[in-house]
């Protein structure tokens, strides 16, 4: 199947053509916002980290920012740094530029303050936006698509209706040569043994199981029980009583395809063989989506039983609910009503096909409701505290 998108110099294809302004740290975030506000169409991400982090935690933030800049939905990037940040603007810009896309950087301390940086940055951003505006969509095969799978604000209808429909759409994409990413490590606890059986590669299977074990071990090391936060209060109010019950519903998003591998948060993307992958992300929806988009996903399908408005700065998020009442109550945010499986006798393949066809339309330029409402939630997973 052929789609229409934007060709990137590294051979990938984007379904959007964003100009992204990336602050290297929280100290540069306000300046990045001011630059983006002066250029219609430019997007700044609200990075709250990037300084006084150490070791793997600092590396994770840097890789997440670089991954966002490298995402094929981004056509050009402006990096803004303070100058004394833990993450430096020039190396970050150079890493993103390995994709071949236009990248520039500014340092507030070198420019003499924010007024000069905003003025210069806005001029550069306007020039970059003009170049993006003349780029045309070109045909590409659907096999170049990586789909992120997410669920949040879940209730029992997620496992009964919307997640199985997502699994159908994921299986169809994988069968056509594309890739899907299942996420949320905390939300496979209790179902990990079932998912592990679908890893053909024993090394990748063990990596996946180690990712699950590590989440539980981190909680134990902190003297906490994961079950105090999972399921969340909203999940419990919706009718999910245990983390295992939540996980058994969550796993249906992965359909029936075999797993090709396990990915580290934001630092790895499907390479070589396409297909279904697992990414080690937290259960927190926004941090999880950020990790998968940094890992190269161009589009997100998000199942929600109780309803959530969450979007992404650079990837369209399709919202599907298995709860008919939620669909009616939050119609401004829900793209598909999978609750018809429960209330009207629609089948999982019927809703799954409807979802897949909407995915195709969104890839070709149709806006999701989250996009049209300007939802651009962004958050980076932290491994430890700030020092």
Task: Spell out the blueprint of helices and strands.
Blueprint lengths: L1 E6 L5 E2 L3 E6 L2 H12 L4 E3 L10 H16 L3 E8 L7 H9 L5 E5 H4 L2 H20 L4 E4 L4 E6 L4 H20 L3 E4 L9 H5 L5 H20 L11 H6 L4 H8 L8 E5 L12 E4 L5 H10 L4 E5 L13 E5 L2 H6 L6 E2 L2 H4 L4 H16 L5 H4 L15
Parallel strand pairs: 3-4, 3-5, 5-6, 8-9, 8-12, 9-11, 10-11, 12-13, 13-14
Antiparallel strand pairs: 1-2, 1-7
Helix pairs in contact: 1-5, 2-3, 2-11, 6-10, 6-14
Outline of this structure?
With 387 residues, the protein is α/β, with parallel strands linked by helices. 41% of the residues lie in helices and 17% in strands.
Structure description:
- This protein is of the alpha/beta class.
- The protein has two domains: about 20-135, 3-Layer(aba) Sandwich (Rossmann fold); about 140-370.
- About 40% of the residues lie in helices and about 15% in strands.
- It is built from 15 helices and 14 strands.
- It has helices at about 25-35, 55-70, 90-95, 110, 115-135, 155-175, 190-195, 200-220, 235-240, 245-250, 285-295, 325-330, 340-345, 350-365, 370; strands at about 1-5, 15, 20-25, 40-45, 75-80, 105, 140, 145-150, 180, 260-265, 275-280, 300-305, 315-320, 335.
- The strands form three sheets. Strands 10-11-9-8-12-13-14 form a seven-stranded parallel beta sheet, with helices on both faces. It has a four-stranded parallel beta sheet with strand order 4-3-5-6, sandwiched between helices.
- Helix 1 packs across helix 5 and helix 2 crosses helix 11 (about 285-295).
- The longest helix has 20 residues, at about 115-135.
């Amino acid at each position: 199947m052929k789609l229409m998108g934007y060709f990137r110099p590294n051979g990938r294809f984007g379904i959007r053509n964003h100009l992204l302004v990336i602050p290297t740290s929280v100290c540069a975030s306000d300046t990045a916002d001011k630059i983006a506000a002066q250029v219609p169409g430019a997007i700044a991400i609200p990075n709250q980290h990037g300084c006084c982090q150490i070791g793997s935690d600092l590396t994770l933030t840097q890789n997440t920012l670089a991954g966002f800049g490298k995402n094929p939905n981004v056509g050009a990037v402006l990096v803004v740094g303070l100058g004394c940040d833990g993450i430096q603007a020039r190396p970050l810009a150079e890493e993103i530029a390995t994709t071949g896309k236009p990248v520039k950087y500014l340092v507030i301390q070198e420019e003499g303050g924010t007024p000069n940086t905003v003025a210069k940055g806005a001029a550069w951003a306007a020039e970059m936006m003009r170049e993006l505006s003349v780029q045309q969509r070109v045909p590409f095969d659907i096999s170049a698509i990586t789909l992120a799978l997410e669920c949040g604000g879940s209730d029992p209808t997620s496992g009964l209706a919307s997640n199985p429909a997502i699994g159908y759409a994921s299986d169809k994409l994988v069968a056509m040569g594309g890739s899907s990413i299942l996420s949320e490590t905390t939300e496979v606890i209790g179902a990990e043994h079932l998912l592990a059986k679908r890893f053909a590669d024993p090394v990748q299977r063990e990596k996946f199981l180690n990712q699950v074990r590590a989440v539980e071990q981190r909680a134990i090391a902190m003297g906490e029980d994961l079950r105090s936060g999972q399921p969340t209060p909203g999940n419990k109010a919706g009718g999910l009583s245990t983390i295992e019950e939540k996980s058994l519903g969550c796993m249906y998003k992965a359909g029936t395809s075999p797993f090709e591998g396990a990915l580290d948060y934001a630092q790895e993307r499907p390479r070589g063989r396409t297909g279904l992958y697992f990414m080690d992300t937290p259960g927190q929806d926004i941090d999880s989506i950020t990790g998968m988009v940094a890992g190269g996903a161009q589009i997100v399908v998000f199942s929600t039983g109780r309803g959530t408005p969450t979007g992404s700065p650079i990837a369209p998020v399709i919202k599907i609910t298995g709860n008919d009442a939620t669909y009616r109550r939050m119609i401004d945010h829900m793209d598909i009503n999978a609750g018809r499986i429960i209330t009207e006798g629609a089948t999982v393949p019927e809703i799954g096909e409807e979802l897949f066809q909407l995915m195709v339309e969104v890839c070709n330029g149709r806006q999701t409701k989250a996009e049209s409402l300007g939802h651009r939630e962004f958050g980076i997973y932290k491994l430890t505290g700030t020092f």
